[in-house]
Specification:
The protein is of the alpha/beta class. It is 31% helix and 20% strand. The C terminus is likely disordered. GO terms for molecular function: 4 iron, 4 sulfur cluster binding; lyase activity; metal ion binding.
Length: 291
């Protein structure tokens, strides 16, 4: 098994840097816990100081490598879904051309994964993180309020079924094509908290290599829920560990993060590579979409 990625390998987490290039604003689903924002100070997924074009992503990467030569990973992790944005593929093509030695990875909700796998393989992407929060559509419909698929918008159970089918197909195919697949699952108290072990079994059978159970950050329609206590997360990880390898070091970082994740506070390189004053500009979840 090949690793040396700070978000998959515990040793690399403290030794190897990564940079998230925020080129992907559009998303094709709406998760109940997700509130994307540009210019905000918050340190969580879906946040970036700005959305940039692929050419600027290349410039930012060059600057970040000068400031932090331990960066070995070029990633796209939002603030929307990378596979729903053509800029993601343009960015990876530039990285492949100018920095062929860098490892490439992305995070996705998985809706378009199966369709995009051949292109990702061609671009040299090695690592995939798929966020999957339910393997039962009846639970999924409580988490996902909208799924945009092939020009149509689906809600409720139908949308959850489409998303789950595409996620499972994408994970299954990706693992058999040689990608290293990590599955992120957001632990949502009272929603999927009794369902995570079942997710672990299905992910193992689909071919995923590792599972990352993350505590809910109470936002969106789940803003009234409590964030799960550390002992709750530890308990469910212990239950899932005999089934599939577990990841314990996730920082739930921003879409423009840069540096070595295991080093705290870890924001110095990001601020140097993005030399713009921080201003809080909260946007509605849909305000970043191109449509």
């Amino acid at each position: 098994m090949w690793l040396a990625h700070p978000c998959y390998d515990p040793e690399a987490h403290f030794q190897i840097g990564r940079i998230h290039l925020p080129v992907a604003p559009t998303c094709n689903i709406r998760c109940g816990y997700c509130v994307r924002s540009v210019g905000a100070l918050e340190n969580r997924p879906g946040i970036t100081q700005e959305v940039i074009r692929p050419s600027k992503a290349l410039s930012r990467l060059k600057q970040a490598l000068t400031l932090e030569p331990r960066i070995q990973i070029a990633a796209v992790a939002g603030p929307g879904d990378p596979l729903a944005n053509e800029a993601t593929f343009e960015t990876f093509a530039l990285v492949k051309e100018y920095f062929p030695g860098l490892t490439k990875c992305l995070s996705t909700n998985g809706l378009l994964l199966a369709d995009k796998l051949p292109l990702l393989k061609e671009l040299g992407v090695n690592y995939l993180t798929v966020t999957l929060n339910a393997v039962n559509p009846e639970i999924g419909e409580r988490i996902y309020t909208r799924v945009m698929w092939k020009g149509h918008v689906y809600h409720g159970l139908e949308g959850a079924r489409i998303l789950l089918e595409r996620q499972m197909e994408g994970i299954y195919q990706a693992s058999r094509m040689g990608f290293f697949v990590k599955v992120n699952t957001v632990f949502i108290p009272g929603i999927n908290s009794d369902h995570v072990v079942e997710i672990a079994r299905e992910m193992r059978d689909a071919g995923a290599h590792i599972m990352n159970i993350m505590p809910l950050i109470p936002l969106g329609i789940f803003s009234g829920l409590p964030s799960p206590a550390p002992n709750e997360i530890s308990r469910v990880r212990a239950q899932c560990l005999p089934i599939i390898n577990q990841w314990y070091l996730c920082k739930q970082c921003r879409a423009d993060a840069a540096g070595v994740p295991g080093e705290e506070p870890g924001r110095e390189v990001q601020q140097e590579a993005c030399p713009y004053p921080y201003t809080t500009v909260n946007t509605a979840p849909c305000a970043l979409c191109s449509h």
